Amino acid sequence: MSYKFPEGFLWGGATAANQFEGGFHEGNKGLNIADVLPGGKERISILKDPGFDFEIDPEKFYPNHEGIDFYNRYKEDIALFAEMGFKVFRTSIAWTRIFPNGDELEPNEEGLAFYDRVFDELLKHGIEPVVTISHYEMPVHLVKEYGGWRNREVVTFFERYVKAIFNRYKDKVKYWMTFNEINSGLMMPIMGLGFSVHKEEDKYGPTFQAFHHQFVASAKAVKLCHEMMPEAKIGCMIIYAPVYSYDSNPENVMHAMEESNIFNYFCADVHVRGEYPGYIKRYFKENNIQLDIEDGDLELLKEGTVDYIGFSYYMSRTEKKDKSDVEGISGNIMEGIKNPFLEASDWGWEIDPIGLRISLNNLYSRYQVPLFIVENGLGAYDKVEEDGSINDDYRIDYLRKHIEQMGEAIEDGVELMGYTSWGCIDLVSASTGEMSKRYGFIYVDRNDDGSGTLERSRKKSFYWYKDVIDSNGEKL
Prior knowledge:
Pfam family, one: Glyco_hydro_1
Largest sheet: 8 strands, parallel, barrel
Distance between the termini: 9 Å
Number of domains: 1
CATH class: Alpha Beta
CATH superfamily: Glycosidases
Keywords: Glycosidase, Hydrolase
Protein name: 6-phospho-beta-glucosidase
Family: Belongs to the glycosyl hydrolase 1 family.
Active site: 375 (nucleophile)
Shape: globular
């Protein structure tokens, strides 16, 4: 069947500065977290294990340093996005381009000017920027000198950064999000919260304190946005993965609900409702977590609630209270139980299009605010044929099935603003630093070892997605 998407639906693609810009030291940019994460499978253990030192090892390869060189090729890439018909393009601002160390008093003009050029180029092609303020690229100086987001002082530095970019781009950017996949800090605080736990400490105390500081910072950003840009919209951004019970045993159903509350809803509850939910207060009590909440914080959270929820959707997860007798799986930094009804990607991420419809209905029925799918896609190995073509029918099939479920959710009454497919141009994987894990409609000649010409070429999915946008989702 064909689906009717709302008029003005925001079709486009999504990226992150640290995964595709490159320009490692160009324009006075400072060192950020992604710059010190080596490529390859060891990145996963660095992100999850305690004790990372945030230093560059000259013996290792750091793919984020060059990314796909969008820093120097942005005009070429934006022209390709325009050819596909993008209405919006989601990217992020690299904090260290604006404040190289993070704690300076004045912003770096070269960094500000770079994003002026990018946003002007997008607008020239009729593409609205959707900008994530902080996307896994915290200044390393703030990590080493202050301890990342566990330190309250970082809120002040973030507010200064936000004021600088809002003031500069208030006439160019209408859609903002505060922290990318904020709830990922539960699994990998290094990228989202800017610290590695010490071996001897329980990670949850500092993690939830860091979350509180980010909630305060987000609320301040929301208030600033509403004051400085009354016409703009500012949202939060979470990973959403519906949690299924392994069976109908009430113990497992309850366990799945508890897992979903903390992972899927905790951060969104604070962002959208402006208060800490009852289940998390119980969790804090049972785990002896004491938050340092300053006077005025709780009022600020109430005043700084977001306009919409941006979220990434890649997979669902299945849970069982006692996992000793079932096969476990891992995907998208999450652990779970193998779901016998689902196939998985080359990287073991279970593929569940109907789960997207479930997610949209869950979120909308809970919050009644507009939703924006700002990441969704298939990481896969692509083969370049002898004639240069890339026949990624598997990607088209994946995206078609997910967009169909978006159409179903809209029929269900869900208010969906738009859809930006992740990695619309091939980029460096966040979790493994690989280029071979490709998501894009646009192929970039770049290999895991850094070799390749960086030349761009259109995949079969490029033309398919162009038709999807041209028909506003009717031609899938």
